[in-house]
Specification:
The strands form two sheets. A seven-stranded parallel beta sheet has the order 3-2-1-4-5-6-12, sandwiched between helices. It has a five-stranded mixed beta sheet with strand order 8-9-7-10-11. The two termini are 34 Å apart. It contains nine helices and twelve strands. The protein has two domains: 148 residues, Rossmann fold; 107 residues, Dihydrodipicolinate Reductase, domain 2. Bound molecules: nicotinamide-adenine-dinucleotide. It is found in: Cytoplasm.
Length: 268
Amino acid sequence: MLKVVIAGVSGRMGHALLDGVFSDNGLQLHAALDRAGSPMLGRDAGEQFGKVTGVKITSDVAPALQGADVLVDFTRPEASMQYLQACQQANVKLVIGTTGFSEAEKSAITAAARHVGIVFAPNMSVGVTLLINLVEQAARVLNEGYDIEVVEMHHRHKVDAPSGTALRLGEAAAKGIDKALKDCAVYAREGVTGEREAGTIGFATMRGGDVVGDHTVVLAGVGERVELTHKASSRATFAQGALRAAKFLADKPSGLFDMRDVLGFAKN
Ligand code: NAD
C-alpha cells in the first residue's frame, strides 16, 4: 500500500483528497499536515468523515514524512517550498497541485526533481490535461489572423489570478504560435488601451460564488471564432488526478512530470 501524506487537510482540496484516500484500498493515510495555528491540529484526520484513523493532524513536517512514500500538496506557495525542502531531505516523492508560484519557486521545484520524483501540475483533471493539448494544436493551426484570449472563473475564495490553469493554457497557446508566454501575455486592460496587438495572448479573470473552475480559450478570427471550454463541477476530479499522480510516482525515484506523463497523453 502506498503511504500518502496530505498537506492542507483543512482546505477544500484537502477534504477532497482525504475522501479519495479513504475510498481507495491501494492508499494508506500516513500523515495529515496543516498550517501552524490551524484549529484542526491534534484532531483525527477522519473526523469530518465520521472515521477514526488514528492519524492526528499536525504541523510538524519532518516526523510526518518519516516512512512515507509520497506527499500530496494543495496549499500555498510558501508552504509548498517548505514541503519541497523537507521531502528532499526525507527522500519522499511529491505531488504539487498548489498554484501561484513565482519563477524562482518554479526553478526550485525543477532543481528538487533531480533528487526526488515530482508531479507538478496546476490542474490535475483529465479534461484539462486534454484541453492543454487541444489548445496548443488549435493555436498552431490558427496561427495567422486569429486572436487568442484565455477567460477563467473561480469561486470567491481563490487568492491568485489568473489561475494556474489559465496560465498553463496560455503557455500551451504561446507554444502553438512559437512564442514564450512572457513575451506576449496581456494580463490587464483598462482605459484607452489602443487596438489589440496581433500575436498577443490576453487574459480575463472572473471571481464569484462557488465556481470550482471554468476555463475557455477563444481563438477569434474575422468571420468566425473557436472556443475551447472546460468546466469542473467537483473537486473530486482534481483529487482523483492527484492520487493517480501519487501512484504514478511509485517507481520514479527522480524527475519532473506533469499530468500528461501521468495519463500517458502524447506531448505535442
Ligand atoms: P484552501 O484555502 O481551501 O486550503 C488551503 C490549505 O492550505 C488549508 O488547509 C490551509 O490551512 C493550508 N495552508 C495555507 N497556508 C499554509 C502554510 N503556510 N503552511 C501550511 N499549510 C498552509 O485552498 P484550496 O481551494 O484547497 O486550494 C489549495 C491550492 O490548490 C491553491 O493553490 C489552488 O489554486 C490549488 N488547486 C489546484 C488544483 C489542481 O488541480 N492542481 C485544483 C484545485 C486547487
